Amino acid sequence: DNAESLLKNADTAMYRAKDSGRSSYRLCTRAMNSRAAERLSVENALRRAVEREELELYYQPLIRLATREIVGMEALLRWNRPGHGIVLPGTFIGIAEETRMILPIGEWVLREACRQAKVWQETQYPSLRIAVNLSPRQFQQTDLRDVVLRALEEAGIAPQSLELEITEGTAMFQTERTIALLTDLRQLGVSIALDDFGTGHSALSYLRQFPVDRVKIDREFIQEIDTSPSNRAIVSAIVAMAHGLGMTVTAEGVETEAQVAFLREQECEEVQGYLFGRPACVR
Ligand code: C2E
Ligand code: MG
Ligand code: MG
Question: Which of 11, 72, 163, 277 could staple 61 via S-S, CB 3.0–4.6 A?
């Protein structure tokens, strides 16, 4: 009933037509406005998810390449959403970020992961390291250091058992503050890993200044080791650079023995991937 919504709806229909392979037409329906509605519904459901304890942590083993033993676990968030099954973080972390819900969720992840680490340390793996992903927004939080300290104390694990994973995006944002915060956290004894390395926009000059203990090479580069000489060159260069800067290296998404063989030649310290274990829940 007004020009603006007419144009908006026509636009929606056009995009839908293009999505279904062009040379076609679509009528705009209520359902199409559902993208926005869908977001809103995810947002509302996510708010309830925290209260209803629908969030769950899965864990994936981190393997020392030389001995093939488990040296750590990475906590990976899952949402057991009623009517939707197990939902992967890719579909809701972004929304949690935008709505700042990532702050309470992230704090829960940290506390729960530390608690589980304590259980493992007391049973099977006395020196297990627990890796927790942090989102950029959590990193802007002023009391992050306190949140981390509290989680460690509450669980009764040493700061040396905790590794925080940040992405290049987080690292490059507000660099002065970020460097100060990272330095603070490392002074506690917590280690820092740069996740998905190679996919973001790390300036090498920044990397040099960054107080980072580990680089995790993104799956994208690892997956094509077998077939792509240029990916082999990139992986080999990242490992050499990290070692030159005094950092250790974890390769993500390792799925084949051929990849393992190449990574061993490069003296990559740790691997993570379906070959050694998929993310799994503890219960
Ligand atoms: P990430 O931290 O890089 O985690 C590794 C992702 O790769 C996980 O996906 C894992 O299931 C997948 N993966 C591991 N090995 C293999 C493999 O061999 N092959 C293949 N195809 N995939 C493999 P997932 O669990 O879907 O998590 C996706 C991303 O969501 C994570 O990437 C991380 O950035 C983010 N995320 C997960 N949990 C949290 C959390 O608690 N907080 C925040 N802020 N982000 C989280
Ligand atoms: Mg990670
Ligand atoms: Mg990663």
Answer: 277
Element (H, E) at 271: strand 270-271
146 with 160: CB under 8 angstroms?
Answer: no
* Predicted TM-score (pTM) of this structure: 0.89
Task: Name the more confident of 34 and 266.
Answer: 266
Give the pLDDT band of residue 36 (cuts 50, 70, 90): low
274 lines ligand 1 (CB under 6 A): yes
Residues 6+ apart with CB under 8 A from 72: 61, 62, 128, 129, 130, 131, 163, 270
pLDDT-wise least confident of 87-91, 95-99, 182-186, 197-201: 197-201
- Tokens 């209803």: give the residue: 52
Q: Please indicate whether residue 166 or residue 203 has the higher confidence score (pLDDT).
A: 166
Q: Report the nearest atom of ligand 1 relative to the CA of 109.
A: 41
Task: Give the closest residue (by CA) to ligand 1 atom 35.
Answer: 89
Is 261 close to ligand 1, i.e. is its CB under 6 Å away? no
